[in-house]
Amino acid sequence: MRKALVVDDESDAREFVRAILEPEGWEVFEAEDGKVGIAKAKEIRPDLAVLDVEMPNVNGFQVFTELIKAPETQNTKVIMLTGVADKLGMRFSADDMGNFLGKEPDAYVEKPIDPESFKRVVQDVIAGD
Amino acid sequence: MAIDQPKGLRTPAAGGSPAIQPFGQDDRRALRALVQVSQMVAGDLDLADLLRSSIHAAAEAMNAEACSILLRNPDAEELRFHIVDGPQTAGLASVSVPIDDHSIAGWVAKNREPILVPDAYRDARFNRDYDLKTGFRTRSIICAPLVSQDRHLGVMQILNRRDGQSFDEYDLVLAQAVASLIAVAVHNAEEHAARIKAERLAVVGQTIAGMAHCVKNILNGLRAGSYIIDQQMTDQTDSRMARGWKIVKRNMQLLSDIVLDMLSYSKDRKPLYQPCRIGNLCEDVVGLLQQQAADKGVTLVTGSDLEEVCVDEAGLRRCLINLVGNAIDACGAGGGLVKVEAVRADISGRFVIRVRDNGCGMPPEARRKIFDAFFSTKGGKGTGLGLAVTKKIVEEHGGEIRVESAPGEGTEFALVLPVGPAGGGPV
User: Fold this and answer.
1) Which of B207, B214, B217, B232 to mutate: most A Cβ within 10 Å?
2) Dihedral sign from CA coordinates of B250, B252, B254, B260
3) How far off is chain B from A122, nearest CA to CA, in Å?
4) What 3-state class would DSSP assign to B397?
5) pLDDT of residue A33
6) Looking at residue B217, what is its pLDDT?
């Protein structure tokens, strides 16, 4: 069974991703903040990480940076959930984006999530393996 | 004579030095009135007080019985009595006067020329209805246009000299000078009001944009909850709970659409370009609005022969929800058909999404205004943001929106968009 890790400080948002992915045959794990998310990702080595961009303390881009650096998670596919309109939106500067070792997240999905479109994005990201 | 003087300007009696002409009593009174009006214009009076005081000063200087200021109504070719000063003026406030040749004020507004009418009842342009309305008897009139920086703002009228004489050219010159000052004051007040409004809208916009993250999380939570309930409700299509749930969902969708439109409109954004199959997107939107269409007896169809393009999917989704939602609303009860199709454009590197309905269509007046923010033909049901947002999102993609419509013949919107961002593939 494929594993997905949802890292979001909003429990409703984690529940949403779980409700979309579980019927599609995913085993879904949750983390309520970036730090827990990084630790859990190294432990379970998910096929897919769904990261909220804007979280307190350790944000989604910082989690992404850690995931691509760690050998356990460097093949994990990453979908960023953004509340703000664009990835270089109000609170993320080019500097935030600069440490990605030349890698980009595999996809961005804007909140509020549209379930059908989200399923397609997941399929595309995984098919791109 | 070196200085142009209006014909009939009262000069001191012959015999005085032609080079230095001492002011006569009328000149002093006129000068005093002009100084008074200039000071009022430069001061910080409220516009209505300023207009009332300044025209009153002018009327006094001309020894006139009555005066009025009519301002142009920007939404219609008409003037409206704004300030009326004098006896028997009741009933004129807010009365409108068409801009045409059938009244002195209308003629001046139309021709933008000041006039002196020595005997009103002998002038074909004079309209006696206003006298009939008030019981006032007009004899002599001076009427001057209020023009500032080429903007025509209204007219000023001075009626009847108290001494029973007709006004003369001298009074006309004074009236023109006062009218120019008043026009500047009206213009300044309008600009000030527009600036305040723009600043207020900017603050509202910033506030909304600042709340975007929080609001989107709330919408996401609502959608999460409803998705989970839907997964459990599949076997209860006709229960009371299912019917109630349908109402909750529909209204949640409406609220969500309004909020997302406001967020999109309030913030400058660059599209978040990602590969997207437009056909799937059209099907999603049609699926989302299927129930709303079915409730009105409207059929939705969609088709696409497009390959994958690179667009901001969430942005285009908003555009399509707005266009298809409007198309459904435009269709009368029963027999409505809305077609959504995506095709390659004739111009290379572009594609077109067309949303066509066979509904009521629009007259040209409405068509010209549909992209203005807060313009709506749906009364209390519309925010007037849907098409403004749609246009904004399309233009952020470097595309354009076209509309063809005629009353009774339906409407077609076409979004012509580049197949990817300028300068290459996904960013």
Assistant:
1) B217
2) negative
3) 13
4) coil
5) 94
6) 87
CATH code for residues A2-127: 3.40.50.2300
Cα distances from B107 to residues A115, B58, B120, B134, B331, in angstroms, run: 64, 22, 13, 21, 44
b (16+ CB within 10 A) / e for B220-252: bbbbbbbbbeeeeeeeeeeeeeeeebeeebeee
A4 within 8 A of A28, measured Cβ to Cβ: yes
State the burial class of residue B108 (Cβ atoms within 10 Å of its Cβ: 0-12, 13-18, 19+): buried
Q: Find the mean pLDDT for residues A87-100.
A: 48
pLDDT of B49 > 80? The answer is yes
Rounded to a whole number of angstroms, the distance from the CA of B96 to the nearest CA of chain A is 48
Enumerate helices (H) and strands (E) in chain B, giving the number of each: 11, 13
- In this structure, chain A runs to a length of 129
Q: Where is mean pLDDT largest: A5-14, A50-59, B308-317, B326-335?
A: A5-14
Peptide bond into A112 cis (omega under 30): yes
Nearest chain A residue to B272, by CA: A86
B6 or B391, which is more confident? B391
Residue count of chain B: 427
- Domains (range + CATH), chain B: 25-195 (3.30.450.40), 211-267 (no CATH), 272-427 (3.30.565.10)
Q: Do B220 and A86 touch (CB under 8 A)?
A: no
At B122, list the tokens: 């002998």
Q: CB–CB of B89/B130 below 8 Å?
A: no
Confidence at residue A129, expressed as pLDDT on a 0 to 100 scale: 61
Strand A2-7: give its sheet, edge to edge: A26-31, A2-7, A48-52, A77-82, A107-110
A16 touches chain B (CB under 8 A): yes
Write out pLDDT tens, residues B220-231: 999 999 999 999
Start-end of H helices in B267-312: 278-295
- With CA atoms as reference, report the closest residue to B175 among B258, B64, B257: B64
Is this structure's pTM higher than 0.90?
Answer: no
What span, in angstroms and rounded, lies between the C-alpha atoms of B29 and B51?
19
ipTM: 0.81
Report chain B residues touching chain A, CB-CB < 8 A: 209, 212-213, 216-217, 219-225, 227-228, 231, 256, 260, 263-264, 267, 269-272, 274-275, 277, 280-281, 284, 287, 313-314, 317
